Amino acid sequence: MIVTETGRTVMKKLPEVTLAFWIMKIAATTLGETAGDLFAQTLKLGYFLTTIALFAVFVVTLIVQLRSRHYNPFFYWTVILSTSTAGTTMSDFMNRDASGEYLAAGTTSLGWGPQGLGLGYPTGAAILISLLIAIFAVWKVSGQTFAIRDITTFRGEALFWAAILVSNTLGTSMGDFLADSSGLGYAGGALLVTGLLAVLLAVKWVPAVPNVLLFWLAFVLTRPLGATAGDFLTKPVAKGGLALGTIGSSMVLLAVLLGLIAYAYRQENHRRLQGTFRAGLG
């Protein structure tokens, strides 16, 4: 909870940004990549139909999160996962076309719906970057804080989730570009993004660089890390992957994420008990 300058107590609905937060973010984004490919390619639902279905799931999970009165780890990370999964197929639908190998593999078995706009990574990324800048501009004008630890209003949280959805879609495009078009491959792309995240960690100790800026840069970069890591797990060995498949990889990653959510519940309950105890002493 947060006590405002007027003495009013408001409940936080977003988590503390700790090492555990970033581990869970990477797990969720990696699962989002494998799960998105599972629905669109392995189950052959196609990008169009899968994107519609996953966006609907995102809306439902977002409503549950927005209606919650306090931070609930399961609600929060379900929305993060839904944005990552929807972002995977949204990015693929925007950037690829039906003549590509990935779309051929993911042709819908239902036989309807366009299978890609074919915008390409540069155009798709430019659109998403412009949209993300527009969201941040509206956010700035609204007077809401950019700091995740201080977001307590409905408007601030709605802007936060809009930025999350777009940044996860943008991150998918970045990851696919690194893996498919840059020549780095899946493992090389993941290593490059890991190196960039290490640079951000080092810059964190530079006083002149705002922590809020570093948070959002890291948040965007963890998505291409998850995208390249997910592809590395599932793609064929001949293409530089481990060929573990989308089903097996998704099941393992889901188990890991659920375990981390259970840990987050334990930490949150401990934090609340401490707060109640201190309030009683006061």
UniProtKB/TrEMBL annotation:
The keyword Transmembrane applies. This is Membrane-anchored protein. It holds the Pfam family DUF347. Keywords: Membrane, Transmembrane, Transmembrane helix. It comes from Paractinoplanes tereljensis. It comes from the Bacteria. The keyword Transmembrane helix applies. InterPro entries: DUF347. The chain crosses the membrane at residues 45-67, 74-94, 119-139, 159-178, 184-206, 213-230, 242-265.
